[in-house]
């Protein structure tokens, strides 16, 4: 019996899909202790947009450690944090005409979401939040209250309150005008809807099954929030940092959210870093009113700064992500055409292939693993195989991965035609 079976909690999950011991990883590949190499089209669930052990980021971190740069600093001022803030403001915010203050809420996506929800409630004095069907915002109680998945919600052990789900884009198959229900509930003083402090939304629901919101839907949501004085929170934890092409996934819709959550790939190297961005007028926090021990992981600041300088001073990565995304999209669409019951979806390099059941999607991911590729499932029943290579994946690796995916689909559903 391995030490994992012996003492690690039953709560572990990804390791059940990939029952090997991983040891080294470079770029889009990860290797196990038997020396077998796998193409990683999981990319740390979006935390490894720049690949494993990206040499530029690695060197920056190594240099910082070798010169005895401060590693841990809560929210004290450090050179690494100064460099990060200056670079983030200059390269990411200013060119997009985004005026945000930066809050470090703790390293995880859930930390960024909790801070956003708390702030929206503090600013408006209201308690209720509007979330969307199949949303995923994290595992802490506030984040879980605005998450859809019933298994995950069940883990809370207490009622999850003060959140009201509305239909995400295309939830009603275009049969009902998009915000008919939401707007009517807001207008009707007899509807029973508690006045919302904020709406929290993802542009593409990653864990929810690669559900893509159309830009016009996002724009209409933003306008609705403005009309009704509701704060708009974009959770860009998984789709930010270039996953859909532009740095922020909402850029395509041309909107400016009140609050933005970032984590996962903002740390560049897979190091823990979370940000909650807020319009300056919303910055009514008292000093220390929200804090946390791991808000100043300086090697993460160093890697984040280097990642921004390397990949976001021009549009090379954005363009290549869009082009590679189109390529994956075409390959998945071909599979969907060849095998009835499959559906291709996604934007940028956040792509997915929906199957008729979670069982089938799981079998395809297992078949891919046997052929040397990591992909995870998403969606309420795990019915979507999620294709998320690092954005830095080479053309040859992408091509190789798509061939593996096609073979895995053929091996699994090919015989069922
Ligand atoms: N928000 C979104 C959109 C996510 O996809 C995730 C994680 O997958 C989270 C929040 C939670 O992030 P974390 O697992 O780092 O708490």
In CATH, what is the homologous superfamily of the largest domain? Answer: Type I PLP-dependent aspartate aminotransferase-like (Major domain)
Beta-strand portion reads: 15-25%
Q: State the distance separating the first and last CA atoms.
A: 40 Å
Question: What spatial order of strands do you see in the largest sheet?
Answer: 4-12-11-10-7-5-6
Summed up, the domain count is 2
Shape: globular
| CATH architecture descriptor text of the largest domain | 3-Layer(aba) Sandwich
The small-molecule ligands in this entry are: pyridoxal-5'-phosphate
Average pLDDT, all residues: 97
Beta-strand segment tally:
17
- Helix-strand category: alpha/beta
Largest sheet data:
7 strands, mixed
CATH topology of the largest domain: Aspartate Aminotransferase, domain 2
Summed up, the helix count is 14
């Amino acid at each position: 019996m391995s030490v994992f079976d012996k003492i690690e909690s039953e709560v572990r999950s990804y390791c059940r899909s990939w029952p090997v011991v991983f040891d080294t990883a470079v770029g889009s590949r990860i290797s196990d202790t038997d020396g077998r190499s796998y193409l990683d089209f999981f990319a740390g669930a979006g935390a490894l947009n720049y690949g494993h052990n990206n040499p530029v980021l690695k060197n920056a971190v190594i240099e910082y450690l070798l010169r005895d740069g401060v590693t841990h600093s809560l929210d004290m001022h450090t050179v690494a944090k100064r460099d990060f803030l200056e670079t983030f403001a200059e390269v990411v915010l200013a060119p997009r005409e985004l005026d945000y203050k930066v809050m470090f809420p703790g390293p995880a996506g859930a930390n960024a979401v909790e801070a956003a929800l708390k702030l929206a409630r503090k600013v408006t004095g209201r308690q209720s939040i509007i979330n969307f069907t199949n949303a995923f915002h994290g595992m802490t109680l506030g984040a879980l209250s605005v998450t859809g998945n019933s298994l995950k919600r069940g883990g809370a052990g207490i009622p999850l309150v003060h959140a009201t789900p509305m239909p995400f884009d295309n939830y009603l198959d275009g049969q009902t005008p998009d915000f008919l229900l939401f707007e009517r509930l807001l207008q009707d003083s007899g509807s029973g809807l508690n006045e919302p402090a904020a709406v929290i939304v993802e542009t593409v629901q990653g864990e929810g099954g690669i559900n893509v919101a159309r830009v016009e839907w996002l724009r209409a949501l933003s306008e609705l929030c403005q009309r009704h004085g509701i704060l708009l929170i974009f959770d860009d934890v998984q789709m930010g940092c270039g996953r859909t092409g532009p740095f922020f996934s909402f850029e395509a819709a041309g909107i400016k959210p009140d609050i933005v959550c970032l984590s996962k790939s903002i740390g560049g190297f897979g190091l823990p870093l979370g940000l909650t961005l807020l319009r300056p007028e919303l910055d009514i926090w008292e000093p220390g009113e929200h804090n946390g021990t791991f808000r100043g992981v300086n090697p993460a600041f160093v890697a984040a700064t280097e990642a921004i300088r390397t990949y976001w001073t021009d549009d090379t990565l954005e363009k290549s992500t869009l082009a590679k995304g189109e390529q994956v999209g075409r390959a998945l669409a071909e599979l969907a055409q060849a095998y009835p019951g499959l559906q291709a979806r996604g934007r940028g390099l956040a792509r997915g292939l929906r199957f008729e059941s979670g069982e089938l999607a799981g079998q395809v991911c297992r078949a891919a693993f046997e052929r040397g590729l990591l992909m995870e499932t998403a969606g309420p029943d795990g019915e979507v195989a999620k294709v998320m290579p690092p954005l830095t994946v080479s053309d040859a690796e992408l091509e190789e991965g798509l061939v593996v995916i096609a073979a895995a689909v053929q091996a699994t559903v090919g015989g069922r035609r």
